[in-house]
Write a structure and sequence with these properties.
Layout (H helix, E strand, L loop, with lengths): L1 H23 L5 E5 L6 H17 L3 E5 L6 H9 L6 E6 H10 L10 E17 L7 H10 L5 E4 L5 H13 L4 E4 L3 H9 L5 E5 H9 L3 E6 L14 H4 L7 E9 L4 H16 L1 H9 L12 H21 L6
Helix pairs in contact: 1-10, 2-10, 4-12
Bound molecules: D-malate (MLT).
The site of D-malate has 17 residues, from helix 2, helix 6 and helix 7.
């Protein structure tokens, strides 16, 4: 009888655990792990979301930059965290798709994370320091070819979008570039503006404020259509690098095993944040596109993530890109 009562009370505790977890969540400050350097595109988006999510959840969400190995160190930190909703990872097309094709990761990109929601997507801009003499993409390609092996390109590490696009550029233009890895495109962009490196493929959200300020020269956007935030910048098709379409979509994940109610509470906070006119305006000004409401569910992110892996792994492997 005592054993029966103990078993009954244990099962009651277990069956109520997720509800209790959701009711008390968040019970302490939450941490958003940004796997790239402060001041870059993932960090900027992460900070906008962390502030707004903290408010929506009635708590605080702090940003922690855990950087290195094209974002895989920070993503690994999330995979190993306690899955109670207090450690949230922000990642994107490179960290959660490309890295799986080229690195021997200590975690499984699909099995070790619970999807929360997709947040926003932006293409890249091909930009140079102002001292580069080229005025458009055709002149830039000629200048790169005339300076074979000397032209330096900043990246956020092997496999980062900034690197993959550069590899495509090399192949498409039969040129050779010198890639310079940084812990994120935030510090790389600072070096570009200072004239220490020549070129970058950087996310529109990071490059645009400096393009508008006249500190960088833009050549093309890696998308099929021009973007509303930079209507004067031609697409890669218009400029002469046809087909180089790379959209860097960002999303949030929890470590696998988070209570469903906690995932849904966080997802609800993301939906609230993405409906906030102030957040929408900030993201639109940065060239970020917010997914439609039906694409903001955990299930939609899970399906999209899997489809992106199936699409890109063969392409990345065929391009011969290898992690260090
Ligand atoms: C960053 O925040 O540095 C970027 O997301 C890196 C990248 O473009 O892959």
């Amino acid at each position: 009888m005592t054993r029966c009562l103990a078993a009954l009370s244990a099962s009651l505790v277990l069956s109520h655990a997720p509800i209790v977890a959701a009711q008390t969540f968040p019970s302490r400050p939450m941490v958003m792990v940004v796997p790239f350097a402060a001041g870059g595109p993932t960090d900027t988006l992460g900070r906008i979301m962390a502030e707004r999510l903290g408010r929506a959840l009635g708590g605080t969400m702090v940003v922690e930059n855990t950087v290195g190995a094209a974002g895989s160190i920070g993503v690994g930190r999330v995979a190993r965290a306690v899955p109670d909703g207090h450690t949230i990872g922000i990642g994107h097309w490179s960290t959660h798709v490309v890295n799986g094709a080229i690195y021997n990761l200590q975690y499984d990109l699909l099995k070790d994370f619970d999807p929360v929601a997709q947040i926003a997507s932006n293409p890249q801009l091909l930009v140079s320091k102002n001292a580069v003499p080229a005025r458009d993409l055709r002149e830039l390609v000629a200048w790169v070819k005339a300076n074979q092996d000397k032209v330096t390109v900043g990246t956020a590490g092997v496999g980062a979008a900034s690197h993959v696009s550069g590899v495509y550029f090399q192949t498409a233009t039969a040129s050779r570039l010198q890639f310079v890895p940084y812990k994120g495109t935030g510090p790389a962009l600072v070096d570009l503006m200072a004239g220490h490196i020549d070129l970058m493929f950087d996310q529109a959200s990071n490059a645009l404020p400096h393009v508008r300020a006249g500190k960088l020269r833009p050549y093309a956007v890696t998308a099929k259509s021009r973007i509303p935030a930079a209507p004067d910048v031609p697409t890669v098709d218009e400029a002469g690098l046809p087909g180089l379409y790379i959209a860097v979509w960002h999303a949030l994940w929890l470590p696998r095993g988070a209570p469903r109610e906690v995932v849904m509470k966080l997802n609800g906070a993301v939906v609230e944040a993405l409906a906030d006119p102030a957040v929408r305006k900030r993201l639109a000004d940065m060239g970020q596109e917010i997914p439609a409401r039906e694409q903001q569910t955990p299930e939609a992110l899970g399906a999209w993530h899997r489809a992106e892996i199936e699409k890109w792994w063969p392409i990345i492997r065929a391009a011969g890109i290898k992690g260090e």
